[in-house]
Design goal:
The two termini are 16 Å apart. It is built from nine helices and seven strands; from the N terminus they run E-H-E-H-H-H-H-H-E-E-E-H-H-E-E-H. The chain has helices at 15-28, 39-46, 58-62, 68-72, 100-107, 115-123, 145-151, 158-172, 216-227; strands spanning 2-4, 33-36, 127-128, 130-133, 136-139, 184-187, 190-193. It has a domain at 143-232. By secondary structure, the protein is of the alpha/beta class. A three-stranded parallel β-sheet has the order 1-2-3. A two-stranded antiparallel ribbon has the order 4-5. The protein is 36% helix and 11% strand.
Length: 232
């Protein structure tokens, strides 16, 4: 069993090629390859990456145009004015020329060539938010105690519910309360980075001072026990 835990995108210029490779690998071994979403994949659908100045590198954007060399020869920054002089890769001709960031957005829309493929695999559960194998739960960032409460389902149904909510949010239109994929979360009236999103939470990572946050180990033990697994 091969489980890839997300963040294939935004790691250089080969993001889309790596995804295509993983999709092809999955088609060859459908029972043995599971692909999970990371926050850099969910970003494509929520478009929250637009809030980050360096979320998608200009060179990466150019891989979504038909003429990479032409695009890369005119350095562009995503949040500056760009010329609409690129032909987008696998984009309907009637949509016309576009900036490299527009080509990127077209590809990752629900009807685009990358977005539609990802949606199809989410629907078939070839791509998921979380996946259980025997006594192990695989997830990009983590399942928190708060996530289990927000899902409001019996504990053993929470992973299936999480995967369904991700598909619903991505296919039917992302909303600010879709904590399963959202980068931002409102907690006690204050909005900040998602505390309970399974692709976004930093709850289980070291804090800025190099140590675990208080209560983390106890929370992990509680979550894995409630979900019926031994590790996450």
């Amino acid at each position: 069993m091969f489980v890839q835990t997300g963040d294939v995108l935004d790691r250089g210029l080969e993001g889309q090629r790596m995804l295509k490779f993983l999709w092809a690998l999955q088609d060859e071994q459908p029972d043995n390859v599971v692909l999970l979403l990371g926050n850099h994949e969910t970003w494509m659908f929520t478009q929250e990456y637009r809030l980050e100045q360096a979320a998608v590198l200009p060179k990466d954007l150019c891989t979504y145009t038909k003429d990479f060399d032409k695009c890369i020869g005119a350095p562009q920054q995503m949040h500056q004015d760009q010329q609409k002089d690129n032909v987008c890769f696998m984009s309907p001709p009637q949509l016309g020329l576009a900036t490299s960031s527009e080509c990127f957005a077209r590809a990752w829309s629900g009807f685009g060539w990358m977005g539609s493929h990802m949606l199809a695999r989410l629907k078939s559960r070839q791509v998921k938010i979380a996946h259980m194998v025997s006594d192990t739960l695989f997830v990009h960032a983590g399942v928190t105690r708060g996530a289990l409460e927000l899902l409001d389902k019996p504990d053993r149904e929470c992973i299936a519910e999480m995967n369904q909510r991700a598909f619903d949010a991505i296919s039917h239109g992302f909303g600010p309360d879709d904590f399963v994929i959202a980068a931002l979360q409102s907690v006690e009236g204050r909005e900040g980075m998602s505390r309970d999103g399974p692709t976004w939470t930093r709850r289980f990572g070291n804090d800025y001072y190099g140590g675990l946050r208080r209560g983390v180990c106890e929370e992990v033990k509680e979550v894995v026990e409630r979900l019926g697994v031994d590790r996450m």
